[in-house]
Amino acid sequence: MNTWYKSGMPWVWMSAGSVGICIALVIGMLFLIATKGLVYFWPKKVIEAVYKQPGSEPVKIIGEIYDEEKVSVNKLEHIKNILPSTTQEIVRYRIKTGNREVQPDFKIVEAPFLSELTTPRDIVMLERREWGNAYGRIKEVLHNGSVVATGSEAWQEFSRRVEKQKVLFDQITEIEKDEISSINYYRDKNKFRFKKLELNGDKDQAKLDKIKKDQDELDIRFNAAIQKLSALQKQFNEDSFVFELAGGKTLTLPFSKVIGGYRPNEMGLIARIWFYIEKFFAFLSDVPREANTEGGVFPCIFGTVMMVFIMSILVTPLGIIAALYLREYAKQGPLTQLIRIAVNNLAGVPSIVYGVFGLGFFVYTVGGSIDTIFYPEVLPRPTFGSPGLLWSSITLAILTLPVVIVSTEEGLTRIPRAIREGSLALGATKAETLWRTVMPIASPAMMTGLILAVARAAGEVAPLMLVGVVKLAPDLPVDANFPFMHLERKFMHLGFHIYDVGFQSPNIEAARPIVYATAFLLVAIIIFLNLAAIMIRNRLREQYKFNEG
After folding, report:
1. What digits encode the pLDDT tens for the residues 366-384?
2. What Cα–Cα distance (Å) separates residue 410 from each residue in 326, 445, 458?
3. What are phi and psi of 128, to 5 degrees?
4. Which of 125, 168, 191, 304 is the most exposed place for a label (fewest CB within 10 A)?
5. Confidence check: pLDDT of 507 > 80
6. Are the CB atoms for 346 and 318 separated by under 8 Å?
7. Is 288:370 a contact under the CB 8 Å cutoff?
8. At what angle do helices 153-174 and 205-236 cross, to 10 degrees?
């Protein structure tokens, strides 16, 4: 036993066991997040029941059983004396009843007081643009206030008109976000051209006439787009329907406020799977709505991935150049050692400090100077002098720079001196030796630094809150307007979206599955980016395996 202990094997097994436990914990965490989040898109059965609390009138309930728990009777003093003395615990349900404009979104009920529990096939779950889901029955379909379908025909007519409304909504959105937005963009540009001539004292009549001509053409296009939009909106608001809630209360709702209607209780397995796929891809491709508690997260995905790419493009060459200088060119002495200590210490600085630095230096100083020099006609409205995608990417590049420097320098240190000397002996210059021999061999270490940088940057939230991320920015920083990529714009981020929905939402209980789904998506994106970098690193490592030996 003493010999086995001195051989170091206990420490090997302890390390292996610790790694195994960590991997199991990570897998368990991912499984928890996935099950809590991805189940959100599965269509649940909608129940209809009567709930009668002791000493109160019976109430009809329609909704989804959101979750359930077993509760000790001793904790329920108001019903303890009503239940049989042998009852130790009861089941309590949290039912999502929706219809937020007339009642709370959730209702907590005790199972012993539920009766007449059924799952009628004609119950409809409405997915709306405002006020969340609604549960009830379609009673009538109206066109300009006149009844066009009722009774059993109302559901078929409702389904047909919902599809029509989706087409109209897409057309309206295209005009608003593409055509009118593009026209307004160039109208603003034209006004700034005129203001710039005034600031420069340029009274060239030909230039003024050109600006006026362009403005007139844009106004004509704008008025035509507005007329087209008004016609579509009039058509969009013609249809409505009567919706019966639990208890017989009815609401007249316009189709313009409805995304879709579904009958979960009559869906078969294939229909449920198809519904799940549709909702999951809608989550990936739509914009948020209802204070980010509903809808999709596409702007968040786009903003996160673009920020990581820009950050990687900035931090990789800077980190590699700094490491090359420190290792290959700088004279090794106290000053170089002090710089290395400073780089290592920078890796431990809290990320919020980088955010404050980015806000003060990049946004207010650099961005403000750019506005003063290049965009005086736009002032006092800032262009680059406000938080945006560019400053967020640069701030995170500085935050992750120490990781890339340290990893690259360690890779350069492991390269045998004989390789450098052999290259120099064959007549290569020092620069050629570095470029053609040393850097290719050290490229796996460089990729390791990039992998660590991406893993940290993609999950950072605190600095981004100061230098570019906002709660809602449905317009992407990339569009069809020159210069096509607008790095000065604010953007959305998955990490901040999780924080906002989980802690700032007005309806946290309803938003909880969105938090889990978004967290799982963020982890999946980080894993995907890291796997792509790891594959590149492994190919480089295999390619230069002989050289490393």
Report:
1. 999 998 888 888 888 888 9
2. 11, 7, 24
3. -115, 165
4. 191
5. no
6. no
7. no
8. 170
pLDDT in tens, 21-45: 988 988 888 888 888 888 888 888 8
Give Cβ neighbours of residue 223 (< 8 Å, ≥ 6 apart): none
3-state secondary structure 293-348: CEECCHHHHHHHHHHHHHHHHHHHHHHHHHHHHHHHHCCCCHHHHHHHHHHHHHCC
CA-based R_g, the chain, Å: 31
How far apart CA 492 and CA 480 sit, in angstroms, is 19
Element (H, E) at 142: strand 134-143
pLDDT number for residue 86: 64
pLDDT of residue 549: 44
Structural tokens at position 525: 């994106």
Contacts of 342 (CB under 8 A, 6+ apart): none
Gap between the Cα atoms of 460 and 14, Å rounded: 32
For residues 261 and 255, the answer to whether their CB atoms sit within 8 Å is no
* Cα 495 from Cα 512, distance rounded (Å): 15
Mean pLDDT of 469-482: 83
pLDDT average, residue stretch 463-491: 86
Tokens of 516: 């889990």
Q: Round the average pLDDT of the chain to a whole number and report it.
A: 86
Out of 316-320, 392-396, 402-406, 419-423, which region has the weakest mean confidence (pLDDT)? 419-423
> What secondary structure does DSSP assign to 82-130, as a single string?
TS-TT--EEEEEEEE---TTTS-SEEEEEGGGEEEEE--TT-EEEEESS
Q: Which of these, 439, 410, 409, 407, lies nearest to 423 by C-alpha position? A: 439
